[in-house]
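Reviewer 2 asked us to include a model.

Predict the structure of this chain.
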Amino acid sequence: MNRSACTIGIAATVGSCFGLFACATHTHSAPPSGLVISDVTIVSPERAAPLEHAYVRILDGKISELSQRPLRGETEIDGTGRYLTPGLIDSHVHLGAIPGMQPDQEHAHPDIARVAREQFPRSYLYFGFTTIIDLNSDPAGMGRWRDAPLIPDTFFCGGAALMDGYPMNYVPKPQRYAMPYIIVEPEGAAALPPGVDPAGHTPQAVVARMKSDGAICVKTFFERGFGAEHDLPVPQLTTIRTLVQAAHAAGLPVLMHANSAEAQTFALDTGVDIIAHGLWSTTEKTAPGELTPAMKAILDRVVANEVGWQPTVQVLHGIEELLNPAFLSDPMLARVLPRSLIDWYGSREGQWFHDGAEGVAKTDPAALTSLTAERERVSAATGYLAQRGARLLFGTDTPSAPIYTNPPGLNARLEMSNWIAAGVSETELFHALTIDNARMLRLDKQIGTVEPGKTANLLLLSRNPLQHVEAYDTIEMVFLHGRPTFRAELVANKAGVSANTPPKAVE
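Predicted model (structure tokens):
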């Protein structure tokens, strides 16, 4: 084969050209020089309408040229009848743990854990997510994730938790005080163990350390707790305002875990940039899906203040799925999870969370009734905000808890359907998945659109995502820094698994 004249028809899944791309993907070799995608329709959020019969040249991992006249390259991909979009962004994930597996269980099953950790990055890519943001990590936490041979572009926020508050309450003492970015308010300094200097845990010191560590954002928390732990300490208003001021001075946006009416009011009062959950909880008694005047007042402030808002509806569906005995038999799981991990989830050991006190508490009848009400409330709130042009941002909180019902990648595809069911249009969803996430996280100079100079993180689909959410089930090729990979190559269990069957509809 003369590689200088390699032209790829997208229907091909084997052959010499495909072998060239597979090699580039798995060995991190340079992308093909002068790759051209020909006669494709570009769907990009900065455009009022798709650009038909376009030619896109990619050089050195970036988009170098767009044209409606033919371009020639060393390698060409025929895009006739297909759509080229920016890669998608999930702005709320957690990458440290294997969902549903505790550290001691991972240690006991190293082979299962190894193949799972190798697959998870590919599962995000399978659903088109070329960029993901871990909202509570540090350089050490990112190191293990970045060891995988093929990963989306991955960034992290530092998690500025209040000392002994959420989520550090889950870490045993005294290990929790070794967490790098905890905030210590003056009255809490006396409780620190010897050797921990409170001067290193002021809002200003924490932000400075995050910036030095390479974080692109700051995440903080207002959470009184769940279940038995329902009276956790929460930060003072002045503390978070100081944190926001320091973060903005350092060029870092601030997100807040806030899923109740009280917490979202607090978030708005502090001036954070993004509320990292939907409006789930309230002390008001309401009918299913009802938004009271007090709730609407909070949502109207979200719109007026141009605050980003991540609904994360799939978190609530995921908890409900713990009671679904057919969940582990869903054929979609075989695309994103290794068979050995699925089988382990179905074992007695793998059911530890479901069978344990916390899992049982989450799925008792009263809790499920409350959960359904929260899901309907956040769906109604999402639709309310969409109608008013709010800055909805796409994030999934994958995984939201130590549960196996938030599978990487698939969780995001299901969240897309949640948005559509809530009344968000396909165009609004597309913007939230691409440019809106990029802008709010200050990545828009690199990603979010199909324009010259941008990183060539792209998707090739056979349907238009501005018209059908199901278009995301028709991804044929994923480009990561200009390196193309056929979607079928990203499937977890390739034997007998179809690449493009859509996931089941969200009820």
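The radius of gyration is 23 Å. The mean pLDDT is 90. We have added this to the supplementary material.
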